Each structure stands twice: as C-alpha cells, then as structure tokens.
C-alpha cells in the first residue's frame, strides 16, 4: 500500500500529507497535525483512524514533563515500520540482495568500497557549496540536501553543544542493518563535508526511530591538534 499522493487536494492526498508529517516530525500530537495542515479535529481524527487501521502509524502515550504521575499522558502518533515501507522502500530488498552477492563474490572490503562510492556523489555535489557556507550554517545546508534526496532530514542545536542532524527516513534501512558499511561511509562523508567530528548516536537500521548524528562544535583541524597535544603531553 502506498501513501504517496497523486492528487494533493484529494482525501488520499491529505492522508499522505498527514503520514509524511508524522514520518518527519513524529511522535506528534493530533492537534499539531491539524495546525500544520489546516484541518479540523474531526478531519485529523478521520485520517489518523485510517492510518492506524492500516498499520501505518501507532499511538504513544507520553506524560508531560514536570507532571510526575499527575494528569493523563498525552497521546502522540509515530510512524511504524510498515509506514516507512510505504514511502518507496521497494528497492531496499534489491539493495540487500546485491550487497550479499557482492560480499559473497568479492568480500566485505568490496562492500565498503561500494558504500563509499555511493556517497561520493553527495561529496562531489556539496563540497563546492560547503566551501561558500559559514560553518554555523553547514548542518542546515546538509539537512536540506539530504531531504531533497528523500531522507526527510532536519537540523537543530544540541543541548550538549554542537548540532544534531536527524534523518527520519532511510530508503535502505534493512540493507544497512545487515551491512553497517553503508552507515559508516555516510558518517565519514558528513564529517568531510562539515569539516568537524561527527558521531552517529542512533540509526533506523538498528531499530531506532530516527538516524541521529551529533556534530561537534570543533573543527577537524582543532580536534586533530588537541589529540596530538595529548599524545605529546603538551
């Protein structure tokens, strides 16, 4: 079943927009969906009920911060694995089969080389752009580029310092679960594009709801100098 809209103004098209908002911003409350899409509470409930019945989304109860047991938990809605599959994941199985064939015939080093070749296109396209972008805007530019390629990415400031890059959609999640080289190559590319150390905190491939990458506020050059200073005892 697909929720890719053919007619944006149709019932099916509106339901697809609801599903995509949950994919990109979930878990999210029904009221927030209504505000974003300009829908009445009854209309939102109708679409949510249909998506729940189809197994595309699931409810989650979250207690408001500071309540400590008081009050009724808020109901939020999150995308399910089946919901992710509805967003054009058909070639994920083919990617996994191709990588298994490559690993069997040529070894896992060939899979690593293939993974790096896949992200090389992103590097070629974005490296010239990143050289003209201020350092504090690069994560946002990268998120926009990833969203344009279907990864539903977003960027925000991390509470611990630096930035947080989130990818709410991964078209090769099942293949990446079997072949972590895909995620590793992508992480290397992020560090190269941003010019700063990055750390992958969570991945959809490992069962997390979102691929989350922490971007250090320090440049790669500063980090390398700090590590060298530790080694020399300076």
From TrEMBL:
Pfam families: HTH_20 (PF12840)
CDD domains: HTH_ARSR
Renumbered residue ranges of the record's region Disordered: 214-234
InterPro entries, per the entry: ArsR-like_HTH, Carb_Metab_HTH_regulators, HTH_MarR-typ, WH-like_DNA-bd_sf, WH_DNA-bd_sf
SUPFAM superfamilies, alphabetized: Winged helix' DNA-binding domain
Molecular function, one GO term: DNA-binding transcription factor activity
Basic and acidic residues: compositionally biased ranges: 224-234
Domain of life of the organism encoding this protein: Bacteria
Annotated HTH marR-type domain residues: 7-111
Name of this protein: HTH marR-type domain-containing protein
Organism: Nonomuraea cavernae
């Amino acid at each position: 079943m697909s929720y890719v809209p053919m007619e944006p103004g149709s019932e099916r098209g509106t339901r697809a927009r609801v599903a995509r908002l949950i994919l990109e911003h979930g878990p999210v409350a029904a009221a927030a969906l209504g505000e974003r899409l300009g829908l009445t509470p009854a209309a939102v409930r109708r679409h949510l009920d249909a998506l729940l019945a189809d197994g595309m989304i699931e409810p989650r109860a979250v207690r408001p911060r500071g309540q400590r047991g008081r009050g009724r938990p808020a109901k939020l809605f999150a995308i399910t694995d089946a919901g992710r599959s509805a967003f054009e994941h058909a070639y994920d199985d083919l990617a996994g089969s191709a990588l298994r064939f490559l690993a069997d015939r040529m070894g896992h080093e060939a899979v690593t080389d293939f993974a790096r070749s896949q992200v090389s296109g992103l590097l070629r396209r974005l490296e010239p752009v990143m050289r003209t972008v201020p350092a504090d805007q690069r994560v946002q530019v990268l998120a926009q580029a990833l969203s344009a390629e279907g990864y539903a990415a977003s960027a925000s400031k991390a509470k611990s310092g630096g930035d947080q890059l989130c990818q709410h959609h991964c078209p090769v999640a099942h293949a990446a679960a079997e072949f972590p080289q895909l995620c590793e190559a992508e992480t290397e590319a992020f560090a190269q594009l941003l010019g700063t150390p990055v750390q992958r905190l969570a991945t959809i491939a490992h069962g997390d709801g979102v691929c989350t990458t922490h971007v250090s506020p320090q440049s790669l050059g500063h980090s390398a100098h700090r590590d060298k200073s530790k080694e020399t005892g300076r």
